[in-house]
């Protein structure tokens, strides 16, 4: 058996743009023969997938699902380059299979990424777009509820929510789906006040005071104004403190408490949120070609 050196792996990597582990496997399978290894990578679809890996994948689908016993839920974001691919049945199957694997592996991102790596590469090779498994979140409670806004197909769309509620499941069966819809509409950052970073609260206070809103006011008045601002901040960012969209006179926490329920956790994904999309400048591209 040929000695697969780092230099050999690097040479194949530069030739094909495939990953290091893929290059090592290809060289091992082909007794160190660079050309045969490159052909092997092409046959496996790895080279085609690797060459697309630098393209920005900011479209795709978000999927939400829960376990058969209804006590565990996941939300998955799998990205592609264009909106068109989200309508492709092969891509939708990939998302569905990945979500099922996320349920099976209890939301462990690394485990799911490893288990679905070949399926993703094969789909990239067939469809011809870069795809990435971006993120997975999970929740656990006595009952889990899911919601996908404007679902393209059942359980998949651009906005997804999973929420877990503790307490009598007969009581939560009616409220749970409404809370999930509320999350999609109100986009909370935290479940409870306890989860809010104290530094975030201090920053909010500082911004409010430096805005000039409290200028010239007596100290006691300033304290009350700051308290009011922080209460408003909690009402905007903390799920339990938000006015319930279906009954704005009550907070989400109050609605749950009235039914003897408590919030166990939630996750909200907006497709492509935070991804820096590359903006192509046609004039610059033409100038480069002519220059």
Structure in words:
The chain has twelve helices and nine strands. The chain has 291 residues and is of the alpha+beta class. Helix 1 crosses helix 3 (34-43) and helix 2 (20-29) packs across helix 3.
Please state the CA-atom Rg, rounded to the nearest Å. 25 Å
Count helical runs: 12
> How far is the first residue's CA from the last residue's CA?
50 Å
Q: Indicate the low-confidence ranges by residue numbers.
A: 278-283, 285-291
The number of distinct β-strands equals: 9
Give the helices and strands as they follow along the chain.
HHHHEEHHHEEEEHHHEEHEH
* Category by helix and strand content: alpha+beta
Mean residue pLDDT: 86
* Largest sheet entry: 4 strands, antiparallel
Helix content: 40-55%
With strands numbered from the N-terminus, the spatial order across the biggest sheet is 3-2-1-5
Strand content: 15-25%
């Amino acid at each position: 058996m040929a000695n697969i050196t780092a230099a050999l792996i690097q040479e194949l990597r530069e030739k094909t743009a495939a990953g290091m582990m893929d290059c090592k496997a290809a060289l091992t399978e082909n007794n160190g023969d660079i050309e045969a290894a490159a052909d092997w990578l092409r046959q496996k679809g790895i080279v085609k997938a690797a060459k697309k890996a630098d393209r920005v994948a900011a479209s795709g689908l978000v999927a939400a699902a829960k376990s058969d016993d209804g006590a565990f839920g996941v939300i998955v974001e799998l990205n592609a380059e264009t909106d068109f691919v989200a309508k492709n049945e092969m891509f939708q199957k990939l998302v569905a299979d990945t979500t099922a694997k996320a349920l099976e592996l209890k939301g462990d991102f690394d485990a799911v990424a490893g288990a679905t790596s070949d399926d993703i590469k094969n789909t990239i090779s067939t469809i011809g777009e870069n795809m990435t498994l971006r993120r997975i979140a999970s929740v656990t409670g006595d009952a889990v509820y899911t919601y996908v806004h404007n679902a393209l197909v059942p359980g998949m769309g651009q906005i997804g929510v999973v929420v877990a509620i503790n307490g009598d499941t007969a009581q939560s069966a009616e409220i749970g789906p409404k809370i999930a819809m509320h999350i999609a509409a109100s986009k909370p950052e935290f479940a409870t006040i306890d989860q809010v970073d104290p530094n975030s609260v201090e920053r909010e206070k500082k911004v409010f005071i430096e805005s000039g809103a409290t200028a010239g006011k007596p100290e006691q008045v300033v304290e009350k104004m700051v308290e009011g601002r922080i209460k408003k901040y909690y009402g905007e960012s903390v799920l339990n403190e938000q006015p319930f969209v279906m009954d704005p006179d009550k907070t989400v926490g109050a609605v749950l408490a009235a039914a003897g329920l408590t919030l166990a956790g939630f996750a909200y994904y907006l497709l492509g949120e935070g991804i820096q999309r590359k903006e192509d400048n046609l004039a610059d591209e033409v100038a480069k070609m002519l220059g």
